[in-house]
Amino acid sequence: MRSFKLFHDKLILIAIMLSASGILFSSCKKNSASTPVVSKIFPDSAAGNNVVYITGSGLSGIRSIIFDKGRVPAPFNPEFNTDHALIFRVPDTAFGGPQQIIITNTKGDSVVIPFTVIALPTITSVSLPEFTTGTKITLTGNNLDDVTQVILHGTNDQATIVSKDRKTLVIQMPSTTVSRARLDITNSSGTITTQQELISVDNAKQLFTEDFGTGIYNWSWATVSVSTDYAVLGTHAIKAVFAPGSWQAISLHCDPTIDASQYTYYTFWIKGDPNQDVQMDVRSENGGTTQTITVPANVWTYYKLKTDFISGFPIERLDFQIHGPNGNNSATLYVDDILLVK
Questions:
Q1: pTM, two decimal places
Q2: What integer is the mean pLDDT of 147-152?
Q3: What 8-state DSSP symbol labels residue 27?
Q4: Mind listing the pLDDT tens digit for each residue in 221-231?
Q5: Quick check: helix, strand or coil at residue 160?
């Protein structure tokens, strides 16, 4: 009721303004036979859900309002309109860019008005939070069909647009020197910067990608191997088989030691055991605190942890320590793309 009152009060204000400018209209007499004539539209550009006001004559018998780019109809309430004033909202499904609004009355007479729909790109999800040069990433959102450029924010590094439609945009990532970046995406309505941040694997400290990184050694106390069973970006991941009933760990020995305070994030993927969720402690044996995570069964899960819990001392050992599998069950997990990111 409150929103209706606010809208009603706005209509009264509009009526007063139109009357003051010499335009008289009546809500009692509506002439549906008049040919629609538009003298003014305000605003002449707007985003979806914004209100548009049209003044003129012959506006009481309007049957349809169509945004011609994609033939998108605009809903409106005839009770709010008079012979001299028409009020409606830009549909949230309208396509962006310059176009025509076609207003047609019950006799079939039409008037065409130039208008620009502001439909900036929106991104709700990304298929991958990290990339190497050449990685293809699918962005999901809206108003992506007329995207012309995707650039890593703060750089001149431009991604290649592979395909696009209204809801999805597939890009191929460029070579870059930055560790992580948001995306600047441009379409006919303008440019936005995504909330999602992508991490460059190429520019991270790689503890494991296709194999253990330089100066990183497998000191695990579990059955650990490099496997091609599953992987995230490449073709290899760590496979760890944990025996039932005991606490075991994937343990990475670092030689030389690592100063985690030089990095912002500790990131990795884990594919859970096919049959059970498991609890795992992520920690350094050299100090700091423990981060306990739950690894869901049978899916890849991405973890992005601040490095505060392993900072302030030289790191010689980094562990993924599993809480002993229940009963007689063993557990098999895969870990991939273990990174320290600046």
A1: 0.84
A2: 98
A3: S
A4: 999 999 999 99
A5: strand
